[in-house]
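In practice, a research group might receive sequence data for several interacting partners and want a quick structural hypothesis before committing to experiments. The following worked case mirrors that situation: the sequences arrive first, and a predicted assembly follows.
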Amino acid sequence: MVTETLEHVSFHVNGTLHELDLPARRLLSDALRHDLKLTGTHVGCEHGVCGACTVLVDGAPMRSCLAFAVSLEGALITTVEGCCTDGGEMGPVQQAFQDCHALQCGFCTPGFITTITAYLEQHAAPTAEEAREAISGNLCRCTGYQNIVAAVQRAAELKTELKT
Amino acid sequence: MKPSPFTYHRPRSIDEALAVLSSVGDAGKVLAGGQSLVPLMSMRLAAPTDLVDINHIAELDSVEVTDSYVRVGALARHSRVEADPKAYGAIPLLRQGLVNVAHPTIRNRGTTVGSLVHADPAAEMPAVLTLLDGVVELRTANDTREVAAADFFEGPMQSAIRPRELAVAARFARPPPGSGSAFLELSRRQGDYAICGVGALVTTDGGDAIMSARVALISVGDGPVLVEVTEAAADDGIDEHGLHALVDERIDPDPDIHASAEYRRHLAHVLALRALHEAHQQARLVNRRHRVA
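A structural hypothesis for the assembly, expressed as tokens:
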């Protein structure tokens, strides 16, 4: 049996620097939820299939259940809690989800919000087909994807409106 | 669904990583992107006692394009290789294969070299390395060796890497001028494991005639299955029946809950023909542009 020592790691989450001492095997998803109490990141399948735990690492979506927290030394992490406006209001993707009824039970939503937030940074006006491709790595079991696809396009509109 | 405890190492250089790997011996395992290793550890199908995290070794995060190859460092994420314009210009097949590797989110962290070492028979990049006669560069603290793709994939989830070794890079050889390529696969859902997939490489004489043609198939054998199909080349492309016979000699599909062996064989035939056709078309297009220029 390996004795579990704690490893030091520091990373930013939603703009705040965190210094943590964690067992090396602590998944990033668990570090966010248990150690930082940021329970917006949801844990579904825990083996990288469902996408519910998706967070942004240095701006790019990644599965937080497929990374050890200690490996994220120095990273800039954004969770769904960080996808709001600077004033703490709903961000464009969150607003679009409300407008389009793109969530029902909400379990998968944090993974969609983070994924779509990053996607729209690179693709300002996706077609429905592109939107479908963008969310293809996220599973939803109750809402259905039609409204989520609509929300991707609505969020793109809202983002453009904000800029002009 | 939680990994068992392990000792964590965070080397900052290749030499430091090799020293750690050397000291921990058989118990050591390299962590790169972790998109296959972490789930295996969470499911306790793998329980290395020492994990050597190479995510902080900047010198491994490289994509180098020369006249003869594209060299991908051990820490180059799939997404980086996929987006690299020089790598795409040199070997379009890299991006053609990479866009089929899981989802963009997985490609943001997963590494191309890690995928090669993992040697999943359903994985795309081992097939790409095989098609392009690539090599994997392996290092230990006091030795360096290169293993050709043909010898690297030893079986399902079994590559030629040994304890204490670090796969520092893979080199994909640039195909000769007048070549075209394609990668096609069928999966139950977009981004899922391929039920069958085929990479194709066709080299022409600079016009329309095929000088050589080969395919590498995934999910129909213990690893990427390379089939030389030049003799199935006909005047106007590829002879379907000749191709099927050549493919059938080499593949050995297994049935599972998603597809019967016969269905996989059918897909191998259909996808190989389509991929070769696309590769041939691409080569002709490039040739035509060259002639115009």
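Before designing any experiment, note the following. Helices of chain A lie at 28-35, 92-99, 109-122, 128-134, 145-163. Chain A has five helices and five strands.
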